[in-house]
Write a structure and sequence with these properties.
Chain lengths: ~450, ~475
Amino acid sequence: MQAGIDSRLERLLGAGGVLAESALLERYAIDGVSPKLVVKPENAEQICAVLRVCNEEQWTVVPFGAGTQQHAGRPPEQVDVVLSTEKLNCIQAYDSGDLTISLQSGAPVVEVVDACAEHRQLLPIDVASERRTIGGALSTSQSGPLRAGFGSLRDFCIGISFVTGDGVSGRGGGRVVKNVAGYDLMKLLIGSYGSLGVITSANFKLFPAPQQTTTLMCDSDSLVEALAQRDSLIKSPLSPIACEMINPAAIEYLHHSEPRNPDNWAPERSNTSDKISWKLAIRFAGSDRVLARIRIELASSSEVCGAEEAGFWKQIAAFEERLAARHRNVMIFHVEVPISQSHAALEAADDAATNFNFVAAIVGRPTIGSFVIGFLPLAIDPPAATQYAGAASDFRSRLSKAASAIVVHCPREAKQHFDVWGSTPTDLDLMRRVKHALDPGGILNRGRFLVG
Amino acid sequence: MFSFGVTNKLKRIVGSDAVLDRPEDLMLYEYDGSLARGAPKYVVFPQTTLQISEIVKLAKHQELAIVPRGAGTGLSGGSIARQGGIILAFARMNRILEIDVANLRATVQPGVVNLDLSNALAPHGFYFAPDPSSQKACTIGGNVAENSGGPHTLAYGVTVNHVTGLELVLPDGRIVQLGGAAASSAGYDLTGFFVGSEGTLGIATAITVKLTRLPESVATLLAIYDDVQAAGRTVVAITTAGITPAALEMLDGWTLRAVEASVHAGYPLDSAAVLLIELEGLREAVDEHAQLVSELCRNSGAREVRRARDENERQLLWKGRKTAFGAIGRISPSYYVQDGVIPRTRIPETLGKIDEISKKYSLTIGNIFHAGDGNLHPLILFDARDADQTQRTLDAGREILEYCISIGGSITGEHGVGMEKQDLMGTLFSDSELEVMRRLRNCFNPDSLLNPQKMLPSTRTCKEAVAPGHASLDAPVSSAGVELR
C-alpha cells in the first residue's frame, strides 16, 4: 500500500517533493503519530493534485505549516500524509501604496511583518513564534495583543485561496479592502484548523505603522480592581492599540528568558502571592500631544518605552510558547467570553486550577474577553491524565453557554479523557454539513477538529 | 394548488392582518432600489421566529420560494421575488431586544432600522458603526444580508466586522444559533460566513451586534478642486501618508451640482470635485490630523479646504452626500448605480476611464463614492422608457465593472451581487471557485428555497428558469417580459 502512495505522489511532485525516511517522518509526528509520508508541494496546482489522489484513496492528510500549533486538536488515530506548505513561502505582491499584501501560506509571519515595517506599515499579527507561518496563524485563528487595537485576522484578511479536501480550488474575497462579491470564505477558513481545506495564499489589509508608542502599566491588588480599570478605559475616549491583563502567576513568564528543564521545575505556590499585583499593560500610539494627554488621563501608572517596551510586548506575544517550553505538561486554554463575564471566568480558572493542583497563569485581552490561561502542574511528578480532564471540566462547568474554552495544549495521554474543544454556542449540525461540503471524504485532519 | 388555500394557511400562522395576496397590494413589493422587478404571490409580515419557522415549513411543502425583505432599499435586486413565492417582510419584527452596555453588545430583530439603533444607543455613548446612505430606512437584517458598508466603514469596517451572533431559521424550519455575545467561539465562524450571504443560506431572526463608542471629537473637511484628477491624487496622498480618516468621500462636479440644487449642502457650484473628509478620535489627534490632511489637499491641488464650524454645518455637508441618490432622482427619470471597487491608488486613472466610457455610450455618468477604500459609485443617468438608452446604460455599467476587475478590483463593495451582477461572478471567479461556493449554499439551502437565483450564476447544466413577467438583468434587456423602472 505504502509503495503505491510513494510512487503516485512522487510522480506528481518529483522525488524531492516526497519524504519517506522514518527518522524524518518522526519530526512531523502529530500527538505521537508519525505520518507515512511528508509531501512538499511547490504550488496550489500540486496541492490540488495531491489532495485529489489522497481523497480518492481515502488517505488522511494533515496540513502543516511550521508545526508550532500541531499540539492542538484531538489526537489523530492515523496520519497518512503530512502536507507541508514549506515551499509556498513567498510574498506574492506587496502594494504599499494601497496598503495591501498578498502572501503564500507558508511565509513566516515574522518575515512578512519585517518586510512591512520597512515601508513603515503594519500587518497586525503578533509574532508568537519565530517560525509560525501565515497559514498557521489563519488556521488557528491566532490572536494576540494587537487584536485589541486592530481587530482579529477575520477583520483584516481580505482574500483567501485554498484547496478543498477533494482537490478543488476555492477562493473568497480579493485584493481590495472592501468587497462583498460571493461568500466570505475568509471567515470560514480562519480558525478551521486545517479541517476544511489547505490554505495556499491570503491577502491582507495593512495599517500605517504607529510613529511612536508608549506603554502604561497599571498595578492592581486584585482582579476586581484590574477589571474596574479596564471598565474605565472602555468608557474613556482613549483607544489603545493593545491592552493586556497579566495575573501574578504569569508575570514570571515575562521575565526569565533562559529555559529551564521543564521536567524538573514547577512554579512555587507563593504564600505572598496576594501582595504581587495584577497588571494591566496598555499600549498607545500617537503624537507627542496625544501621548501627553494619555499620561494625564492615566496618571497613576508607570511608563515603559523604547527597547524595554518592545521587549515587553514580544514576551507577551510569546507567552504561550514560553509556557509550553517551560512546562511540557502544561494545559493551555484559549478562552473567549462576553467581556462582562471576564471576572467570573478568570475566577473559575483560578478555582478549577487550585482544585486540581495546578496554578493558573493568565494573560489576555480584557477589553475583548479573550484570554490565554495556562494550567501549570504544581507537582514535580506529571499529573495523572484524569487530573487534566477534571480541571477542564470543573473550569468549563463554571462558564456561561456563550463562552468557549478550547484546550490548545496538553499531554496527549490526557486528551483521551476529555474533549479539548469543549462546547460552542454555534450549531454543530451546520458545522458538520459545512465540513462535509468542503471535505466530502473527511480526509483533512480526520478526527482532530470539533466536527469531522 | 389553490392560492387561497395558501393564503389561509399563512393567515393561520401570522394572523389575518399580516398576509397580502391581492395584486394591487403585491405591486408595492415588486421592486427594491435596483432596476429589477419581480412579483411575489404573497407578502407575509411575521412577528416571531416561530412564525417564520412555520412559514418556511409551509413554503417547503408548497414548493414556494421565500425572499426575505427589510426596507427594500437594496441596490442589487437581493429582495426581489424572482420566482414569485413569498416575500417575508420584517416590518413587524423591529424591536431592539437588548442593549447590553456591559458587554458592548445589542441584540435586535432584523427589521430594526439602522439609524434607530444608533439613536437608541446614543444616550449610552455608543452607536452602530456601519452607516449606509440609506440608514434612515434600511434595516439591520438587510445590512446583515448584504454585508452593508457606508462612508464610515473606511475606519470601522463593514457589517461583518460588527456582528457576533445570529439566530437563524434554516430552509427546513429548524431554528439555530450561531455565535453570541463573545467576540468569537470554538468551531467554524459561521456567523461571519453568514453575513453577506444575501438571503441564500438562511433567515436571520435575531442579530447580536457590537457597540462602537461615540468619538470625543470630529472634524469634517470639505476640500474643493478645479480638477477631478487632483481630487483623486489627494486620496492616494492621504492613504500613503498613513492617515486613516473615519470617512473619505468624493463627489464630482456634475454630481455635486445636482445635489446642491436639491439640498443646498454648501458645495461650491463652480468646482470640478469635492472631497468630504471626516477625522475622528481624541481632540488632540483630530486637530493634528485635520491640519495635516488640509495641507495634503492643498499640496495635491485643492483650491480651498473648509472645515465645518459646527454640528449644523457638518450635518449639512453629510446630508448632501447621503441624499445624493435622491437628488439625482429629481433630475433624471432613471439612474443606474454601480458599486465597483478598485485599488485606491488607481482612482485617478479609473475616473479617466469612466469619463471615456461615458463619452463612448453618450451617457451622463456622475461619480459619488467612498474614495478612501476605492469603492466607486458611478451613477449612470438614463430614461428607462428608451430601450436603446437602457441597453447602452447596462453595457456601460458592465464595461466599468469589467475595468474594475481588470485592475485587480471587485464588482461590488457593499451593495451585493443579487440578481444584478450574477453573470459577472464568472468573470471574477473561476468555475471551481464558484463550485465551492455552490456546495456551501447547498449545504444550507439545498433546494434553493431561499432567495433562488441570486448571487451565484446558474450552472449551464441546470439553468433555473426565469418566470415570465419577472425582470432579469442577466438576460438580454430587449427580450419580452423585462420591465425596468
